[in-house]
Design brief:
The protein has 245 residues and is mainly alpha-helical. It contains eight helices and four strands.
Length: 245
């Protein structure tokens, strides 16, 4: 693990923060490029991305507070986001939710924007998850698998590199989605829901390698949440398919 790139005097540069920022920049640039190809107005793209990112951070933190509220002792700990503590689903839903609200308010073509948005999101998420891997902040179960990695901060046991698994899964999904986008096989919101379904399914499988307490029918709370999200995304896909017909 390489959580720190370098330190100089009182300044420390963390690999996770750098890669998350890089993911936002590259993902945003990709959305901008595709918006140009679709002849969409990019005048307010920076505002759109800013609102989505802020909403994503707030949503991810609120989701963490709701799930792990028993670990907090006072209001200050709720606000101490720099100490870690995010749940990605809350961030994804809040980010895309606020982005959708903004697009509707501005009378933009929401489905075209969401289709290119999922492409940019997957690229940004891929890079951000590489940062999680370097930081070693996603704990996997002990394993004898060849890819097992020892995290000295936890123990001396080889563990599943869960963040790396997710990065590889997102990479595969990204190439599939960008291929579909370029060939125009599906569009008008269908691409967005397809990308979400593929990501949620991949994440559901990867969750089995995470260090979680089993709570219901052998599934973690995250997996139960993912099942709900998959169902919602499938309903959205069916709705858009029927509407496009």
């Amino acid at each position: 693990m390489y959580p720190i790139i370098f330190s100089f005097w009182k300044v420390t540069i963390y690999s996770h923060g750098i890669l998350v920022a890089l993911g936002l920049i590259i993902g945003g640039w990709l959305i901008y490029s595709l918006a140009k190809e679709e002849d969409l107005s990019t005048r307010q793209l920076l505002d759109l991305l800013l609102y989505a990112v802020i909403a994503g951070l707030i949503g991810a933190r609120l989701n963490y507070i709701i799930v792990y509220h028993a670990y907090f002792n006072n209001l200050w700990e709720y606000l101490a986001i720099w100490q870690g503590g995010m749940v990605s689903y809350g961030g994804i839903l809040a980010g895309f939710g606020v982005a959708s609200w903004y697009l509707v308010k501005k009378k933009e073509n929401i489905w075209k924007w969401l289709d290119i948005g999922i492409v940019g999101f997957l690229m940004g998420w891929l890079i951000g998850r590489c940062g999680c891997f370097l930081a070693g902040d996603v704990i996997g179960k002990p394993t004898e698998f060849a890819l097992g990695i020892v995290q000295p901060a936890i123990d001396s046991l080889p563990r599943h590199p869960v963040a790396l698994y997710e990065a590889l899964a997102v990479l595969i999904i990204f190439f599939g989605i960008i291929f579909i986008y370029k060939t125009r096989a599906i569009k008008d919101g269908l691409l967005f829901f397809s990308g979400m379904i593929l990501y949620f399914i991949a994440r559901f499988g990867i969750e089995f390698a995470r260090e979680y307490g089993i709570i219901f029918w052998g599934l973690s709370l995250s997996q139960i949440t993912l099942i709900i999200l998959i169902i919602v995304a499938v309903i959205g896909l069916i709705y858009r398919y029927k509407y496009s017909k």
